[in-house]
Every structure is written in structure tokens, then in C-alpha cells.
Amino acid sequence: IISMKLRKCCSIYMNDILILESEYYSQVSIDSYKDVGNVYFNYDDNIDYSEITILVVRLNYVIDKKFLLKFTKLKVIVSPTTALTHIDVECCDLMNIKVYSLQNCKELIESVTSTSELTIGLIISLLRYIVKSHNSVITDNLWNRDIFRSRQLSRMKLGIIGIGRIGGHVAKY
Asked: pTM of the full predicted structure?
């Protein structure tokens, strides 16, 4: 969806695209950006930020005014995330930079379960003292099952506050 919007929006520009955190993108995704322009990666040497028209960013970077001033030709920011707390959207509006994200793609992301699965993993980790017991074995060379005794999950109830996308997945699990 973002790729289609990007093609429509950016076909009039000669685009230089900078993909930050590119190690997390599939080759299919990278190829879709190559259809729109020249692609550079955050680890490329000698990137001329003043020539970048499209910036692709996840959550590891804070995109504020100071960051944006490096990109004098920037027209579009793409963030394949549902939240935009890492991007100063008001500043982008003032600088006429369009921001595309997955924020309004509810149907598309409904089947994405990775955050819900991580939530279940973290719950189990807390209830079963996985991190504490691991650290005890590694640092103290000690395994004391009495210290790390827990209750069986099958006898517990889980309360979920909010049954949105993630809460709904957790409830199904």
C-alpha cells in the first residue's frame, strides 16, 4: 500500500531514496523502492543528504527539525510503523514533507501478529522467571528451582485491558 502511494506521489520527481535500518527490509521491499528511484542505505559512504527526496525510517531515529534540515530536497518520509511518535509530523507539514505510515492501514496490519506474540512471550517470561533464572545460572553459576518456582499457566487467568488489534490477538492465544 505504501509502495503504491509512493509511486503515485513521487513519479514526478527524480528520487534519491535513503533507507535507514535497511537490514530489516526484505529484498521485495527494497526492490519496490528501487522502482521509484535510486536507493541508498544508512551504511553507504558519501551520501549527499541534500539530494535525498524520500526517507524511509522505522523507530530507531528521531525525525525532528534538526534532523530534517539536513535534507533540503526531502518530499516524503515513509515509516512502515503504526505510530508516528518518532517523527515531528507538524514540522513535516510546515516543510511540505508528506508522511506515509501504516497508521491508517488497519485491514492490512490486522494479520500482523509479531507484537502480540512478543507480548505472550514477555508474559510467560515474567511468570516463569526466565530472565532471573537465566542470569542466576550465567552470573552465579547457580540453579535453585525453589527460588524460581512459579504457578502453572493453565491454572491462571489473564486480564487484558483493551481488545484492539494486539489485545485481540493475545485473547485468541
From this structure: 0.71
